Amino acid sequence: MNIPTVCAIIFICLAAAVLLYLLMIMPRMAGRPDADGLKNWLYAHRGLHDNASDAPENSLRAFQKAVDAGFGIELDVQLTKDGVPVVFHDYTLDRLCGREGKLCLYTFDELQELSLCRSDQRIPKLADVLKLVDGKVPLIVELKIEAVDVSLCPAVDKLLSGYRGMYCIESFNPLGVLWYRRNRRKVVRGQLADAFQREGEYSGPLYFFLQNLMFNWLGRPDFIAYNHKYPGMLSRSLCRRLYRGTAAAWTIKSQDELERAKKNFDIYIFDSFVPQR
Known about the structure:
Blueprint: H1 3-25, E1 42-45, H2 60-69, E2 72-79, E3 85-87, H3 94-97, H4 108-111, H5 126-133, E4 139-143, H6 152-160, E5 167-171, H7 174-183, E6 189-193, H8 196-199, H9 205-211, H10 216-219, E7 223-227, H11 234-241, E8 246-252, H12 255-261, E9 267-270
Helix pairs in contact: 2-5
C-alpha cells in the first residue's frame, strides 16, 4: 500500500474510535425526565451528621437535622440477609458498629442490636427514612451494589414507587443504573464515578472504563455524579458540555470547595461543614 492509503486507513480507524468513545459515554438524550427540581440544592452527605455526636451518618437523627435545616439528603441503601432495604454506607459493619462481617450477612433484627458510633441510633429501614422525610426535601438514593446481584433495585423501587417526594437514584455499579433504564424509565438516574486510577486506590481496565464513564452505554444516565476534585476529566466534561447532561459533585468539604464547584456542577453533595446559604 502507498503512503496516502495507509494514512487514510489510520484516519478512518481513529475517527471510528472517537465515534465509538462518544457513543459509549453518551448519557440519555431522548425522553429525559425533568430533573430541574433536583438542581441547585445542597445535599447533606448521609444526612447532617457528626459521627462523634448523637447524630451519626445515615441515622434517622442525622436525616431529621438535614430536613430541619432545609438541606436535601444523599443516602446509601443496601439489603439485609432477610431482604430489608436499610440505609448504611459500608459493606462491612466494623467502622460504624464495631462488629465483624458484612451487613448482608445479618438480618434486620440482628442489626438492631448494634448501635451506630456508640450512639442511641440504629441502622434504619429505608421505609422509615422515607416516612421521616415525607417529601420535605429531595433525596439522592445511592444503590450499594457490590457485584452483579441487582436484587436491591426492585426492593428499593417497591418503596420509592409509592413515595410522593422528589428523588433520584445513583450507583457506582452500571448494572444498577441499567436496571432503572429497563424498568423505571421515568425515574431520574445517575452514574457515580471517580478518578479511580488517579486516586491510586484501584487499577486495571475495569476502573479505567469506570472513571472514563465508558459504561454509560449500558445505563444511559441522566446525570453524572463525580468526585468534585476532578472537574476536568474529559468524559465528565463532555457529558456536561457536549451532551448537556446534569452534573453532581461529591463530596464537598468546605465553603471554598463549594464555590469552586459551582463553575462545573449543578448539584452539590457536602460533608463535614454546614454551607452558607
